[in-house]
Amino acid sequence: MINLVIFGPPGAGKGTQSEKLISKYGFVHISTGDLFRWHTKNDTPLGKRVKEIMNSGALVPDEITIAMLKEELDKNPQAKGFLFDGFPRTVAQAEALDKFMHDNGSAIHFVVALDVNEQELRERIAKRKAIENRADDEEEKLNKRITEYFGKTIHVLPYYEKQGRLARVNGVGKIDDIFTSICAVLDKGR
Ligand code: AMP
Questions:
Q1: Residue 157's domain is classified under what CATH number?
Q2: Looking at residue 140, what is its pLDDT?
Q3: Which of 33, 39, 79, 106 could form a disulfide with 47 if both were Cys (CB 3.0 to 4.6 A apart)?
Q4: Residue 164 counted as domain residue
Q5: Catalytic residue among 134, 144, 152, 165, which?
Q6: What is the pLDDT of residue 190?
Q7: Would 139 be classed as within a structural domain?
Q8: According to the 3-state scheme, what is the secondary structure of the chain?
Q9: Position in ligand 1 atom list of the atom nearest CA 69
């Protein structure tokens, strides 16, 4: 069983690569962004709490995010392995995740960080906006999301780097080539 975090700024390709990884390795996919979107779409009590925050491009507070993640983990006790996508985004979330995994006799084995420069990110998100029309892809909100990434989320990298669990992968290029690089990391470490 391997557990993987796929890490990177908005537009880095986490969702695209996650789909490919799931079909190859059979991970249970946990995307906190998708979960929050499901809650807001279905107007659940949690959705009502996070809607404004998400629409502004800010991060949802840790206590809410961590509680939702824990619930998802508990729903999947038989998982062969988890792929965390968009989580953790703060050091507190990374610590909580380690604790949850440890409590289940498991661990996060790999953190794959997709490196993509800011210009490329903006171009990709502009294209995604034209296709998916996500409210938080609008320019002002996108600026906030990028600020949140470089202000808070990036600090998660040294947390994993110190523990030797971080692999950086060039996230610019052909989707299949990036996927091959990620698979090489996983297959080498298994
Ligand atoms: P994403 O689809 O991963 O870019 O997430 C969309 C939005 O959901 C983010 O801009 C945040 O508002 C919220 N979100 C998703 N994951 C997290 C997280 N781990 N911590 C805090 N907020 C999150």
A1: 3.40.50.300
A2: 83
A3: 39
A4: yes
A5: 134
A6: 62
A7: yes
A8: CCCEEEECCCCCCHHHHHHHHHHHHCCEEEEHHHHHHHHHHCCCHHHHHHHHHHHHCCCCCHHHHHHHHHHHHHHCCCCCCEEEECCCCCHHHHHHHHHHHHHCCCCCCEEEEEECCHHHHHHHHHHHHHHHCCHHHCHHHHHHHHHHHHHCHHHHHHHHHHCCCEEEEECCCCHHHHHHHHHHHHHHHC
A9: 19
Low-confidence ranges of the chain (pLDDT < 50): none
Residue 133 CB partners (closer than 8 Å, separation 6+) = none
Task: Note whether 159 and 104 are within 8 A (CB).
Answer: no
Look up 124 and say whether it is catalytic.
no
* Residues in contact with 128: Cβ distance below 8 Å, sequence separation at least 6, in sequence order: 11, 134, 137
Residue 52 lies in a domain: no
- The answer to whether the predicted template modeling score (pTM) of the entire model surpasses 0.70 is yes
Angle between helices 62-75 and 91-103 (to 10 degrees): 30
